[in-house]
Amino acid sequence: MAFDASASIPVTRDSALIEGLRRLLPAEQVPLALRLWEEEYSARPGTLRAYADRLVRDYALSQPLRDVHRLLVQHLFLPQTTARPAPPPPVVVPAAELPPLTRAFVELLEELFARFAQSDADAAGMTRHDLADRVLASSLERPQRDALIAWLEQSGPAPVHDYPPKLLRALVHLSYVGVCNALGPLPADRLLAAAIRYAEYHTEGVRQLL
Fold first, then answer.
1. Are 54 and 36 spatial neighbours (Cβ–Cβ below 8 Å)?
2. Angle CA(15)–CA(19)–CA(22) in degrees, nearest 5?
3. Is-above-0.70 flag for pTM?
4. Does pLDDT of 14 surpass 50?
5. Which of 36, 80, 93, 177 has the fewest CB atoms in 10 Å of its CB?
6. Residue 78 has what pLDDT?
């Protein structure tokens, strides 16, 4: 069997990001965009969408934010991509230590999206991105915002902060709308009802999110 040299060399995050940027920008702008990522975004979790938004604005890209973010995700998180240097593993906070309403929110949405992804993984992923967009546009302080976005984009642990109930209810509603749009109202009702039962079995305060 012939030896495949390319298969033995993992793609680094830097080279993967450069490849993605080349699909968005003229070659002479790629180094500046890469430097922007390294200096302002790479060290903080959950900032890929904010970086995509910055690219759209600073470089007047014609592509919508959703498409730019999706392209970056596809390049940075391919199975053969490895980080350089490898980041430390995230600190996982036990669910019991989360603020009560945050815990109810996490339990409800994790179960809802698990069931949603079984029916339509792509739509579930895009709905998560829509929720992250909503959080990005909110008035949250940066630590709260970045932690929630990282969790929504499945690149960080459950957030440990308190969040405004109004925002959490809006995110639950947007999740339900995403399921409705993908699967229809009746399946969405069934999935939400099942997720509520699951969350209520594990924690309190779920009804405050509805």
1. yes
2. 135
3. no
4. yes
5. 80
6. 52
Torsion region of 120: left, alpha or beta (phi above 0 gives left; psi -120 to 50 gives alpha)? beta
C-alpha span between 35 and 193 (Å, rounded): 46
Q: How far is Cα 180 from Cα 186, in angstroms, rounded to an integer?
A: 8
Looking at residue 10, what DSSP letter applies? P
Residue 169 exposure: Cα atoms within 13 Å on the Cβ side: 8
Q: What is the mean pLDDT of residues 23-32?
A: 84
For residue 107, the one-letter residue type is: E
Domains of the chain by residue range = 5-82, 95-209
pLDDT in tens, 111-148: 999 889 888 888 888 899 889 888 988 888 988 888 89
